Each structure stands twice: as structure tokens, then as C-alpha cells.
Automatic annotation (TrEMBL):
Domain of life: Bacteria
Native source organism of the sequence: Metabacillus litoralis
Family from the record: Belongs to the glycosyl hydrolase 1 family.
Biological processes, Gene Ontology terms: carbohydrate catabolic process
Name of the protein described by the UniProt record: Glycoside hydrolase family 1 protein
Keyword Transport: no
Amino acid sequence: MTNSTKQFPEGFLWGGATAANQIEGGYHEGNKGLNIADVLPGGKERLRILTNPGFDFEIDHDKYSYPNHEAIDFYHRYKEDIALFAEMGFKAYRMSIAWSRIFPNGDELEPNEEGLDFYDRVFDELHKHGIEPVVTISHYEMPLTLVKQYGGWRSREVVPFFERYVKAIFARYKDKVKYWMTFNEINSALHFPIMSMGFSIEKEEDKYQSIFQAFHHQFVASSIAVKACHEMIPDARIGCMLLSAPVYSYDSKPENVMFALQEERIFNYFCGDVHVRGEYPAFAKRFFKEHNVNLDIHEGDLELIKEHTVDYIALSYYMSLTQVKDKSGFEITPGNLLEGVKNPFLKASDWGWEIDPEGLRITLNKLYDRYQLPLFVVENGLGAYDKVEEDGSINDDYRIDYLRSHIKAMGEAIEDGVDLMGYTSWGCIDVVSASTGEFSKRYGFIYVDKQDDGSGTLNRKKKKSFDWYKEVIASNGEKL
């Protein structure tokens, strides 16, 4: 433990984060319908398989494993897990509702009572322990029927289905949930639309036309959700959620600086500008022209987007990105659905993601300078291999070091003047990795005995970081 000289505000929302598709399991229980996550194969080839043209969204047990089907069985073990979160002192728990638990096919007229009841029980359990639920409405788990029959968010027809869904959950949980966000990492679709938009780019398809038309449909849907939330739950707050990664130029060569600026604007700020400012940014006009994007915008869309903007900005932060205009001869490094050139000043995780806590401070300052809205770090963590020692202990000092440095960076950003609401570390309990479908890529303070080959007891075990984070929360960030 070390002491921090930076003060976190009173009421700061310390906690942890997960997503339904990565922890719940019970994929066919409670009348739940299939969703995108249910057809994602496990293993390091997941992203390659999904980006191959012709991916058919079918389950093939002869070829692949599907770790999301059971995940870590939160569906049956939520009381045990929430008790552990409470023991750490969580003030907030960021989670998602599986859309296909509420509307199994996505296009039904009435919601599924079994699905609604499940989340009632989860929220009640959280409140019993004094934990505030922070709920993502759509987190990479679109109902499969909307993908296969409608083409995902390519189709305008999905908008009223989403509206029916959000109004159903707002009506049901208006007394239990006061923090909402619409689409998880909405901007990730620029590089990987399959999980958030429900389609992959086919060979003959115009990538940018499809993605930005789908963005427009999501912006309309998000504004409908914001409007409904403000009307149905006046004391609630609803935000957008961005995948944030500051983009550095590899050097001071002006053309590389400009390339990095263009990358940062279209990736980090395009979606934020629409959600927060309520209009398409000026730089989008040239981008659309150069990439032959012609949006089908219905009458009233732009007015709706302008009038119903978000209350706060939630973000994930794992890494920064370094770019050069001509990558020939450069080493390429992977990241959170992104890739750039190797930054010679940074170390990397077991999965090659570069570790840059100062980048979090930079990101928070840039976002707050641009938008002047409260920020909420709802994902940040280290995916690593954890070893269970002979005595049963798990000494994850590397995770403590990672989190400590990033929490310090948040403290510096607060000192810089950033209005920061809270911090929910990803995933506070081991989850199925979204990018690889692996259990061995562990993030949690809580170890789950589940292995990549499907073996394991699913028993929970505290890591060394569990007690460390407990003290961080108890001291409101003073003891790191």
C-alpha cells in the first residue's frame, strides 16, 4: 500500500464491471433467446473467424467451443458473487441486461417475464448490500433474430424494437436503477461491427457506408432512450459509453501528427460529439465525402438527436494507440479491438496490450476539455495469466501495480479539474474474454476455477488484489 496525495470526491462510485454475455451463462434458461454472444466461438482465432466474410451466426459444436454458454454461471451464483463484491466495499456495480432475456427474439410485442424477474432479483440483491447498479442497455448481445432476419443495425426496423425494449426495462426498474448507459463501446464498430452492430462486412460491401448508416440508427435509438429515461425516471442519469484510446503520433513529422489527429477524431470523438453535442461534427463532412458515405436520415432525426443528449460520458480505457501514416517496417501491436505501431516507451500485457496509465489522464482531460460533462471510467483492468500457488494463494501483484498506476492517473485528472463520477474496474470477477473467448485471460479480483478446455469447478477464490482493492475503496482512494 502507498498513500495517494490526490483526493477523490465524496460519493465517488468505486466498484467493478462485467457484461451479461461474459458472466451469466444460462444461455437457454428462463426463456432467453439466442444472441450474438451465443454464437461466438471460443479461442484466440475468434476475431479472425468473425471477420471472415460469410460468417453465418450458426452454432457448430463439431468445429468450435462456446464458452459464453455457461460463462462463470452468474445466472445461478449471483448472490454469492454480489456478497463478494459487497465484502470489497463496492459502491456501484456496472452490469448489462441481456436484451434477449427480455425480448428473446427482439421483435416480440411483450417482454419475457422470466427475464424481467431475473434482473429484479439481481437488483434487489445489490440493493440489499448497498450497491448501486449501473446498467448498460446493450452490451454486445443483440438478439440473434434481429441479426439474421433484419441485418442488425443496418436496418432502420431495429430502432422501434430497441425502443420497446428500453421502455420495458425503464418501466420495470425505474425504482431500482438510477444510472444507465445506452450502447457499450459504440465506437468500436469502426473496427469491428459484428458484436455491437450485428453484422460483418462482406467482400462486396461498402464498409463505411454500412457502418455509418448503422451508427445513425443507433444515434436515433440512443436519443429515444435518453428521452424515455428522462420522462419515465426523472431522477435517473443516462450516458453514452465510448472505447477510449488516445492516439499518439509516432514522431513529430507533421504528416504523422495529422494522421494521428484524424484517427483520434473519427474514432474517439465522432460518436461522443453526436451523443453530447447533439449533431454531427464538422470533420465528418469531409470523411463522408472521401469514403462515399451517404446517410439516409429521416425527417425529425436530427432534431431528436439535438434535443435529447446524454447526461454523462462513460468510457473504457485499457491502452493508448500509436500511429504512423506509412506502417511499412513498423512492428504492429494489438489492443482492445484496435492495433497500432509499437510505442518504444511502453511495456505490454501478456496479450500484447500496451500499458499506459498516463494515457488515462490524457484521455480524461481531453474528453472533459471537449465536452464539460461528468465522466465515468466504467472499464479498466489488466488481462493476465494467474497462477494458483500450492497453498491456494494467487499473488497478482502485477494487477495491483497496473490498477494502482491508473487510479493515480485518475487522481491527477481530478486535480487537473476533471469531473469524475466513479471507477468500475473490469472485470471484477474473472469473465470470458470478449476478444478471444478465453477464461485464461483473467481480469478479476476474484478467481473463477474455469479453464479454456471447459474443465473446472466454477468455485470462487479471492486473489491478493481483492484485499488491496477493498482498502482502496475504504480509504476513498487514499491508500493505494
